[in-house]
Design brief:
- The chain has about 375 residues and is an alpha+beta fold.
- The chain contains 10 helices and 15 strands.
- The strands form 6 sheets. Strands 10-11-15-14 form a 4-stranded mixed beta sheet. A 3-stranded mixed beta sheet has the order 1-9-8.
- The longest helix has 15 residues.
- The two termini are about 60 Å apart.
Length: about 375
């Protein structure tokens, strides 16, 4: 199945700005995150959105994608060590004896990266916290120190490939006799054979364990963002370095505040008297209550900005603002006295009010009038 265009995945135009792409990504990441969306295809769509954003948010990758499309990401243009050059390795093997660029199977290799999804409360994401997580991962077997051999013994050089990890096979071709090199299937390319295997790891040299890791959640982390914990992935092979752990954050919603980037949004219900005459009210913020002056004649839907009362930028670039929107609440049940005062106000304003009687008799009366 062919991949969708990355711009279509994010729902943005090709000339969209970085901020527009970031906003689109955040919206879709929240929509399709597997911890929030339980649909069968949610995880697939979440990965598709993340892949599109990873490419388009990187200037170099975006430039390559704009020129070459998905071929740029499939072939890894600009990346070193691609090795087989997209499937041409076998051709090089046949005509040049497995030369150029084939990686030595005994060379040190970095361990695989791991991913962990952490769910945090809204304010934990805002202020950050120190926590501890537990992840399953492979570790070097302590019984054999990762060699895979029974204590007191050690791996021996493979007698089939003499420790090279490769087998040479001669073939007759129209171009003459050539040598085709393949990974030795006796030692699986390690160049070593274990005659007496470790009973703990069955000769693998690694065992699966649950490891506790301390994680510092940075203040200002947002939904869908990730944190790299260096060296906490799977262990390397042949003395290679371990991989990394990537912690992806799922931030819970808040009952009062809404977040957009580093800004916070909320809605404050006010009475007609407060907006008509003006008032000084208390507004909840992330750091406690603050006073806000409501000028007389404020209209419903008016927005007020509280500078610096938003979320601290996760990269340390200042702090967002809090936006307060006014919503006038109309009381449903008025007393006779309140109705009289409102009628007087309407008369003084020159407004004629045709009051609706919602009683049973009022409905019958309006029906006879043809209303």
């Amino acid at each position: 199945m062919s991949k969708r265009d990355y711009y279509d995945v994010l729902g943005v135009e090709k000339g969209a700005s970085v901020d527009e792409m970031k906003k689109a990504y955040r919206k879709l990441a929240r929509k399709y995150h597997p911890d929030v969306n339980k649909a069968a295809d949610a995880e697939t769509k979440f990965k598709e959105v993340k892949e599109a954003y990873d490419v388009l948010s990187d200037p170099q990758k975006k430039s390559q994608y704009d020129q070459f499309g998905h071929a740029a990401t499939n072939q890894g243009f600009g990346g070193a060590g691609s090795g087989d050059f997209g499937g041409f390795g076998d051709i090089f093997d046949m005509f040049f004896g497995g030369g150029g660029g084939r990686r030595n199977p005994n060379a040190p290799r970095q361990g695989a990266d791991l991913q962990y999804t952490m769910t945090v409360e809204f304010k934990e994401a805002v202020f950050g916290k120190d926590t501890e997580i537990e992840i399953p991962r492979e570790e070097n077997c302590t019984t054999c120190d990762g060699s895979g051999a029974k204590p007191g013994t050690k791996p021996e050089t493979c007698s089939h490939c003499q420790g090279s990890g490769q087998m040479s096979v001669e073939q007759n071709t129209p171009f003459g006799r050539v040598v085709n090199r393949r990974v030795c299937h006796h030692c699986e390319g390690t160049g070593k054979q274990i005659k007496h295997k470790c009973s703990t790891c069955a000769g693998k040299g690694k065992v699966r364990k649950r490891k506790k890791i301390s994680v510092k959640v940075p203040a200002g982390i947002d939904h869908g963002q990730q944190l790299r914990v260096a060296g906490q992935g799977e262990p390397g092979t042949n003395g290679g370095p371990p991989g990394d752990l990537f912690v992806v954050f799922n931030v819970k919603s808040h009952e009062f505040f809404e977040r957009e980037g580093d800004d916070i949004y909320c809605e404050m219900p006010l009475t007609f008297a407060q907006v008509a005459l003006g008032d000084e009210i208390e507004v909840p913020t992330l750091n406690g209550k603050v006073k806000l002056k409501i000028p007389a004649g404020t209209q419903t839907g008016t927005n007020f900005r509280l500078r610096g009362k938003g979320v601290p930028n996760v990269h340390g670039r200042g702090q967002g603002d809090q936006h307060v929107q006014v919503r006038v609440v109309i009381p449903k049940n008025l007393t006779d006295k309140q109705k009289e005062v409102i009628r007087d106000f309407a008369n003084l304003s020159g407004n004629k009010i045709d009051e609706q009687d919602d009683s049973f008799f009022g409905k019958v009366k309006r029906a006879f009038k043809g209303d």
